[in-house]
Amino acid sequence: MTNPAxxxxxxxxxxxxxxxxxxxxxxxEGSIRGKESQAQALIIEKCRKLGLSLDIWEIGxxxxxxHPAYCxxxxxxxxxxxxxxxxxxxxxxxxxxxxxxxxVVPQGNMEDWEDDPFSGKVKDGRLYGRGSTDMKGGSVALLxxxxxxxxxxxxxxxxxxxxxxxxxxxxGAGTLAAVIRxxxxxxxxxxxPTNMKLFPKQQGSMWFRITVKGRSAHGGTRYEGINxxxxxxxxxxxxxxxxxxxNEKMVDPLFKDIxxxxxxxIGKLQSGEWPSSVPDQAVIEGRIGVAPSEEMxxxxxxxxxxxxxxxxxxxxxxxxxxxxxxxxxxxxxGSLEKDHPLMNTLSENYEKMVGEKPKIxxxxxxxxxxxxxxxxxTPVVVFGPGVTEVAHDADEYIxxxxxxxxxxxxxxxxxxxxxVDTKAEGE
Amino acid sequence: MTNPAxxxxxxxxxxxxxxxxxxxxxxxEGSIRGKESQAQALIIEKCRKLGLSLDIWEIGxxxxxxHPAYCxxxxxxxxxxxxxxxxxxxxxxxxxxxxxxxxVVPQGNMEDWEDDPFSGKVKDGRLYGRGSTDMKGGSVALLxxxxxxxxxxxxxxxxxxxxxxxxxxxxGAGTLAAVIRxxxxxxxxxxxPTNMKLFPKQQGSMWFRITVKGRSAHGGTRYEGINxxxxxxxxxxxxxxxxxxxNEKMVDPLFKDIxxxxxxxIGKLQSGEWPSSVPDQAVIEGRIGVAPSEEMxxxxxxxxxxxxxxxxxxxxxxxxxxxxxxxxxxxxxGSLEKDHPLMNTLSENYEKMVGEKPKIxxxxxxxxxxxxxxxxxTPVVVFGPGVTEVAHDADEYIxxxxxxxxxxxxxxxxxxxxxVDTKAEGE
Lengths: 427, 427
Prior knowledge:
The structure is a homodimer. The first copy, chain A, has helices at about 5-15, 15-30, 35-50, 60-65, 130-150, 175-180, 230-250, 295-310, 315-320, 340-355, 370-375, 400-420, 420-425; strands spanning about 55, 80-85, 95-100, 120-125, 125-130, 160-165, 190, 200, 205-215, 215-220, 265-270, 275-280, 280-290, 325-330, 335, 360-365, 380, 395-400. Chain A is of the alpha+beta class. Chain A has two domains: about 5-200 and about 335-425, Zn peptidases (Aminopeptidase); about 205-330, Alpha-Beta Plaits (2-Layer Sandwich), CATH 3.30.70. Chain A has a six-stranded mixed β-sheet, sandwiched between helices. A four-stranded antiparallel β-sheet of chain A has the order 11-13-9-14. A three-stranded antiparallel β-sheet of chain A has the order 4-5-18. In chain A, strand 4 and strand 5 form a beta hairpin. The mean pLDDT of chain A is about 95. At the A-B interface, strand 9, helix 7, strand 11, strand 12 and strand 13 of A face strand 9, helix 7, strand 11, strand 12 and strand 13 of B.
């Protein structure tokens, strides 16, 4: 068998029930933050059956905590490990990281769900439940592709490093820990829900909190106070200007169809305690998008500079400048050349299976790809089944057909990228 | 004794310790909402000693609840009565209501106070504690003036109706209940802290809550959503326009030194739950000032109309118009002619004691005067010791000298307004 692809595709076509059942079990172990262990146990069991070399460890040592890219408010990682399973190649091929996160966002309001949020129910070709799209469907596609290759007796030349990490939804400490542990490769694929588009570039983002001071007064003599809400509106307008200026610089054709490539989102505004008092403080929280090729520090600086401009123009702000905190989430941007060999391999196999060229875009959100690229020097493409729109919503689901189609494309890409050892194969 | 004034003033001058001690005890019984009974007990004791006819009753019957001016979220009034003490005149004089509220606002943050908020501590001529200025100092001035008159053996022709009511800080249900019970008079004085200015007119006010809808989206694709904070800013700008238009109509010379006679205050804005989500709802709370001569309904209508204008101009609002609720506090405005006989009497006696004409202004806040005037058809002047600035703040205090000066002016005004029965006096 010089070309193992037909046999692998045949296996993938014949064992879909197995893939569906595995996803179902994985969704049913609702792995919200701090409760990832049961879902990881299923991953470990699967890796063991596939014969991968397992590396299971609790993250959270001093090296991680002191790393400049570390971002987490979690105090306790015990009992909820990172899992890496390595399929060692026979040598002479390129290595590939296959990265998926096991953590899911909370289910939100139970009443918004038609079924139990962790039902794993299958209906009309869709599998329902929190995490089905983001991104257990993607992780199952990875493992199912690997299972197809291994079950077909194929031996790869390059190493495949499958990673099931925690903490992606909260700043990427799991992937960062894996990079620090030494996992790097010639390429990486992260099957986040891209709706089967290829994302060589990803928007990064950071959260900010801006505290704006006012001066309290009775509402009946409001002219004796300074209304913090009115001052916060000035800050918002200034941030809108900044967003406009930053996006005018985004000339990469990948963004040509995106109205605002790197948005600044005003997500929260809290001010005041009493209808008839002038509020003396307003707190704005939001996120600033970071361009794929931009340093996080640069985006930080531009926001700080624009607030300094505002302060210089306003007598009240001169005395009480808005205070900025960078808190909570930080997602590194990622950027890969559009014609990188990994992009080409993935595109060719997409075309082979789908019959047309894939859509290539930039993602509007950060992934762990930013850490793999910027810290781990590993080229990353984000590509996977499922649509973002349902990802953090009630009644989250994944189209199973798409998940299996992704697995086929991933399997062919693994074969091409890592290379097949035709000698070993026959043994 | 044809002119009893010198004797009354002599008594008032000689018994200040008694007045101070009474205020001290009254402040020490911190009568926040729902806990007015102990302070009312002291008032009752004082009225009894003065020989007033007492009327003590728990408010809260169906007539009150169904009255159009009723405004309260309090469910239980039991155990915390209204108190009225009447000094019946011998006949032929004008009657006078002396109205003070016993309820005080909460102490706020304990750590902001130098002493216990209910210490009643006297230092450098000031008596400290929650309610000292707003308005137990005023009520003590009333009772001390009455005590001076009664102790000097003076008999008045007209009735004096002293009222110690609950609920002023929460919408005026106490005074409304007294009006419904039948208490009306030819004039009324309310010694709220006006800093010894005469307020023939008072600004009324109402609270509003405006709920603005948006559409949620991920912050990275914020252009797919509608940011409720941005839409709320449009509402705020529209309210600012309305405030401007309403105040341009305020040509009464009483307001000539007031930058914004009837302000619209944006007191609170709450929106969003997550920095990187587009918020789908914003809630604005505020208060709209009501002009002294304006109907509450008119102010309501102008606010509703301005939001309808906004809705007509905005495609999103056409589908999702801002929702208005009128909730919580409502304070009726009050208005008396500047040359009303009660104004003249009070002014003359002020000039007599202080040596210059009083300042006459319009109050920037509502008082129970609005209810006395609009529901009880009783002409009201608001005049009292203490300054608004410290009223709801930590370390609230009253200048005792000012309280006693107010008592003198009030005593002389009672004598003039009600008239002295020189025949009965000698008996």
